[in-house]
């Protein structure tokens, strides 16, 4: 298994990560970046040799627009199914980033709806629902789903047999490994992070920032 990080611009100094996992007989794509970064993601897949019919699955770690913006297009282009947790379904089906989350005041919700939402052309219905313990070996990917709510209710992680964890927006690494700054449910996020300390996690691949060792994170956040 080989992991290629596809980094795309987001806002200010923050970038968004997609991960292309090369398997023995195909690829898995984890997250798809902003809709306006479509060509960058598509080009990265093509350069890696991922052609239509070889992308086995598109996995979304959660429903935010900066992670799922190109899922619908890539599904059509590469003939791949889209998988995610049902607790974030309304975000991608309706384009509402506050679906199933704490609600801000009406003014803030309107502003966020104008600038931080999934465009109508990019909205979709997922093909596969992922829940706790879901085994992805049927796709040739030796990994299982871990529910890691906090940033959103449907934020998931994918933990491989070798200890690689794709954690969505539970953790980030903008300068140092830490809890991601955008929190929907503080108690749930704390519980998710504590849970990781009891799992066989070696390397963490976050939605934003460089990968890091779980040992380094635990040393800073005992």
Element layout with pairings:
Elements: E1 2-11, E2 14-23, E3 26-30, H1 38-47, E4 55-59, H2 65-68, H3 71-78, E5 81-84, H4 89-94, H5 106-115, E6 128-129, E7 143-147, E8 156-160, E9 164-166, E10 171-173, E11 177-179, H6 186-196, E12 203-205, E13 212-213, H7 214-220
Parallel strand pairs: 3-4, 4-5, 5-6, 9-12
Antiparallel strand pairs: 1-2, 2-3, 7-8, 8-9, 10-11, 12-13
Task: Describe the structure using short key phrases.
6-stranded mixed β-sheet, 7 helices, single chain, 222 residues, 13 strands, alpha/beta, Metallo-beta-lactamase, Chain A, 5-stranded mixed β-sheet
Structure description:
The chain is an alpha/beta fold and 222 residues long. It has one domain (2-220): Metallo-beta-lactamase, Chain A. 25% of the residues lie in helices and 27% in strands. The chain is built from seven helices and 13 strands. It has helices spanning 38-47, 65-68, 71-78, 89-94, 106-115, 186-196, 214-220; strands spanning 2-11, 14-23, 26-30, 55-59, 81-84, 128-129, 143-147, 156-160, 164-166, 171-173, 177-179, 203-205, 212-213. The strands form three sheets. Strands 1-2-3-4-5-6 form a six-stranded mixed beta sheet. The chain has a five-stranded mixed beta sheet with strand order 7-8-9-12-13. A hairpin with a 3-residue loop joins strand 8 (156-160) and strand 9 (164-166). The longest helix has 11 residues, at 186-196. The chain is globular, with a radius of gyration of 16 Å.
């Amino acid at each position: 298994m080989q992991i290629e990080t596809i980094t795309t611009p987001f806002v200010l100094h923050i970038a968004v990560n997609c991960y292309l996992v090369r398997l023995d007989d195909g690829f898995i794509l984890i997250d798809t970046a902003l809709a306006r970064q479509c060509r960058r993601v598509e080009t990265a897949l093509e350069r890696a040799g991922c052609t239509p019919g070889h992308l086995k699955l598109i996995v979304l770690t959660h429903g935010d627009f900066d992670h799922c913006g190109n899922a619908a297009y890539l599904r059509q282009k590469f003939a791949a199914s889209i998988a995610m947790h049902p607790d974030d379904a309304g975000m991608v089906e309706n384009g509402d980033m506050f679906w199933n989350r704490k609600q801000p005041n009406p003014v803030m919700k309107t502003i966020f709806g104008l600038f931080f939402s999934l465009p109508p052309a990019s909205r979709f219905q997922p093909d596969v629902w992922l829940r706790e313990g879901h085994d992805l070996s049927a796709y040739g990917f030796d990994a299982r789903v871990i529910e890691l709510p906090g940033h959103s209710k449907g934020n998931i992680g994918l933990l491989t047999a070798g200890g690689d964890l794709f954690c969505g927006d539970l953790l980030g690494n903008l300068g140092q490994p830490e809890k991601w700054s955008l929190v929907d449910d503080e108690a749930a996020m704390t519980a998710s992070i504590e849970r990781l300390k009891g799992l066989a996690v070696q390397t963490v691949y976050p939605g934003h920032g460089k990968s890091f060792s779980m040992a380094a994170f635990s040393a800073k956040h005992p």
